[in-house]
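so my prof wants the structure for this chain in the tokens format not the other one, which i didnt know existed until like an hour ago. anyway here's the sequence
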Amino acid sequence: MTPQKGAAFLLKIGDGGLPATYEAVAGLRTTQMTINGDTVVVTHKDSGGWRELLSGAGTRSVSVTASGIFLGSDAENAVRGNALAGTLDAYELSFEDGARMRGQFLVQRLDYAGDFNGERTYSLQLESSGPVVPV
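here's what i got, hopefully its the right format
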């Protein structure tokens, strides 16, 4: 396997159409995805002292964090609108090798910052609601 470029890890937001088309959230400099899973322990006296877990059980979630320079794109404005309204929306994560994942996400946090003579930056955190599936 060859290393993949971080710049090719894109966050995109759906347009609400059927079928949805996705637009990249512009200005992102860093993007990170975390897949979380809670476990269900089913250890019993015949486990021989070893912990046993139940496959396919528990709660799974995907968290996405990103930060970048605010450019005022339609996609950035849609993210802000979702944050203010507390609404779920369709998002897509795409990678350099062509792999993509889609799901419904809630904007958990959206921060803006700026210096007097510097660019306006933002950071955001998304939390999945429902399945996040490869496409």
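also thought this was worth mentioning. Residues 14 and 22 are 4 Å apart (CA to CA).
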